[in-house]
Amino acid sequence: MGFLEATRQNIRQAGILTYAAASPTQQPIPRVGYLARIHLHINGVMTVTPGTGTAVLSEKGPWTLLRRIRYAIGSGTEIWNTSGWGAHLVDYMQKLNWIPEQGDLSPAASYANEIFQCGVSSGANTWDFHMTIPIVPNERDMIGLILLQAEGTVTNLILEWQVAGGATNDFPVVLTGNATATFVGTATIYLETFTVPAELENQPPLDRIHQVIERIDPIFAVGDNVIKLLEENTYLRVIHSIEVNGLLSNAALNTMTLRYNVTDVPYSIDRQMKEYLARKDYTRDLPKGMFYWDFFNQGYPNYGGDRDLVMASGLAELESIINIASGTSLGSNNNIIRTVQQQLVQVATPQPVSG
Questions:
Q1: Does residue 94 have a pLDDT over 80?
Q2: Other beta carbons within 10 Å of 172
Q3: Structural domains of the chain, with CATH
């Protein structure tokens, strides 16, 4: 008997965090079982007062209501650290034809509005949306399970909330003039865990964690913009989100190139081919401005093997090169490349526990 035969899935509510504008809120994670995924349900009321101005949903909304999502172990080791938008991009890559903001697409969808709604009409608008934080890569590969009840293990989920409205797309509601927006609501947290097998020999290996970290680099000029990736750990995926003049942009991309050891180039692809391959691999278009290197897709999204994974620790250099098209008009201090890195990190194995 192995781990899969000796364990059982549990999905239970762990707590509720109340929205606090521009502030962090924290949920300690119960020390029970192996943590596989964290599911979030954000629900509340967005009150919009246009006045003589305007209020529209941000092109990154409603996900930007969460300015930052962090999952930390102990005194600061972070398994997950992304913006709400970055977490949404990772969510997009989890399933074939999965569109997190639309739920059931059939004409007779019975509960589509309960899965996703984020109106910005004048007055009180119900907001409802969900997202998943994958502690393990998928339902098949149990790499990255966190043994919550290991001795000395204390973990916390930190949600840093954004102000409801502002002048840029970094806010959930974009305001002009004297328009205002306020939000009142909560994030309900569900944990997907697996029970600890009674026999030690049936416990899973815990020597690697699945770490998801986001960074932001400025676009300095048209032409090549080099994102130097850490020469550590094993890469499952690298996601880029391109913003020009504060707006998500597909057209700004000319080509993408992955280069390592100075001269080795396994991938060099132009924008239209990347868009075609995204539609081919995921059977739908990805969010505007989103491009990726996916080493964990060998015919079915997020369910690859080891063949194409990038073992960065053995490389002298690892770079993702985003070539910005020559005709792109860049604004001032509002041109960025957001990069989300999904990696497997080797760690010391915690002591096993009895079920």
A1: yes
A2: 28
A3: 3-202 (2.70.9.30), 209-346 (2.60.120.20)
